[in-house]
Structures are given as C-alpha cells and as structure tokens.
Amino acid sequence: NMKVKVEAQKNLLITTTSGSYVGGPTTVDLSIDKDTLVPTSCDATQPSLNWYKVKNSTGINFSSGAKGDDTTFQTASATEGDYVKTTFYIKSVGEGAESLRAAVSVMAGGGGTHIVDRAYRVLVVVDAEGASRKVYAPIAGHSTGYYTIKGVDVNDKPQMSTGTVTPDVADNVILAELEADTEYTVDVYIWCEGQDDACTSLNAVSLTPTTFQIALTVE
Predict the structure, then answer these.
(1) What is the 3-state secondary structure (H, E, C) of 23-76?
(2) Phi, psi (5° rounding) for residue 59?
(3) Predicted pLDDT at 6
(4) Residue 150: which residues within 8 A CB-CB, separation 6 or more?
(5) Cα–Cα nearest to 183, from 102, 116, 126
(6) Residues β-bridged to residue 3
(7) Residues 6+ apart with CB under 8 A from 51
(8) Is 88 exposed, middle or buried (0-12, 13-18, 19+ CB in 10 A)?
(9) How many other C-beta atoms are found inside a 10 Å radius of the C-beta of residue 51?
(10) Per residue in 27-79, pLDDT tens?
C-alpha cells in the first residue's frame, strides 16, 4: 500500500506520460504496490536462485561450501527486488534556466519505538546535464553512522521529514538546472537502508501503509 505523490510548488509542470502537460497538473499520485518492485542487479543476473539457506539436521559441509543438505527458507525473485522505482516527467514554465530543488516527507506507520520509517531513503535522479544525485534521509531519528559511510552522498541541509518536521524546499540543495519549456525525466528510488539502526525486523513488524510526498520547485 505504498503511495508516492509529487507536488510542483512553483513554475513547474508534472506528468506521468511524456509530452502530456494538458491542464498543467501540479500534483500527481504515483501509486505503487509490491508488484512493481524493480529487481536489484544480483536478482537480475541470477534470477530465481536459492540464495538463503539454513542448516538442517544433517548439517552442512562448511569446508567445501556444499549446500545440498540444507533447507531453503527464501528464494530470490526475478520480478521483485530491494527497492521501488517510479518515473515521472517535469517541465519548467519559467523564463530561462531554473534551479530545481526538492523536499521529501514521509507519512508512515510504526508507533511507539518501532519506527522503521527512519530507515527509509529516497534517491531523486534528474536526467539533466550536470544534475546532482542526492539521497534524502530523515531529519530526526536517523543513525549518525550512516552519514559517515564512504560513497554515500547525503544532503547537508534539511531534506526529509518523517511527519514531525515540515521540510522547506527552499532550504534544499539544487538538484539540476532546467532549461525553460524542456522536458526532463525524473526517476525516484525508495528503499530501507540496511545501514540504519532503525532497519530491523522488530521495527518492520509494525509497518503500515506509507506515503512519500515529494515537493519540487524551480526558481
């Protein structure tokens, strides 16, 4: 029951169909369910393999790595992966080049101490020359260790809310420079970050339908 909504706050048109901007929509609902999960690279290259095994009563040959006597408890799928991907299109209606910024908020389940939404990450990728690819992470309650991992590019300004903070688009870094009246493709990837302390089975037990709201503006 995941929902992804994108809102254009200023001088921006959004559509789910390339080239279709009739009426100038300012908000689109990109509804997603688990049937549209995109497989990760390991699933794509090795589909339907028994990746996960547990030891049974006959044991396992640890020296050779043989797994013939083990029992499969989960099979990797060729159609479902570890992240959700959705695509939409934008076009600036201002004059000249415009700076595109984004803010992300999350309305998720998980009351009490089971707050798995803190582990959510959102990557916004704009198909524009010189565009910046940023990972959006929660403002509060995140694992500080996540930010120190080499190779992870996280915004250094307020960028994502889990419902307690209202993100300000103007405070966010520039994702891309858009030429006026030019269409750009935007891909959004959503996943649970395994490096975050909140990404645990215990927290996931209380997971309820989640809505991701992405606000975009150009100036």
Answers:
(1) CCCCEEECCCCHHHCECCHHHHHCCCCCCEEECCCCCCECCCCECCCCEEEECC
(2) 80, -175
(3) 86
(4) none
(5) 126
(6) 211
(7) 74, 75, 76
(8) buried
(9) 12
(10) 787 765 444 444 443 434 444 444 444 455 555 544 444 555 555 545 555 55
Furthest CA-CA distance within the chain: 72
Please write the tens of the pLDDT for every residue from 117-137. 777 788 889 999 988 877 787
Alpha-carbon distance values, 197 to 122, 143, 193 (Å): 17, 6, 9
The number of residues making up the chain comes to 219
- For residues 162 and 141, the answer to whether their CB atoms sit within 8 Å is yes
Residues 6+ apart with CB under 8 A from 103: 158, 159, 160, 161, 167, 168, 169, 171, 172, 214, 215
pTM: 0.70
In the chain, % helix, strand, coil (3-state, to 5) comes to: 10, 35, 50
- State the DSSP H helix or E strand holding residue 135, giving kind and residue range, or none if neither: strand 134-136
| Cβ contact 17:89 at 8 Å | yes
- In whole angstroms, what is the distance from residue 89 CA to residue 181 CA? 12
Other CB atoms within 10 A of residue 74 CB: 10
Distance CA 69, CA 57 (A): 9
- Which ranges of the chain does DSSP label H, i.e. alpha helix? 41-45, 201-204
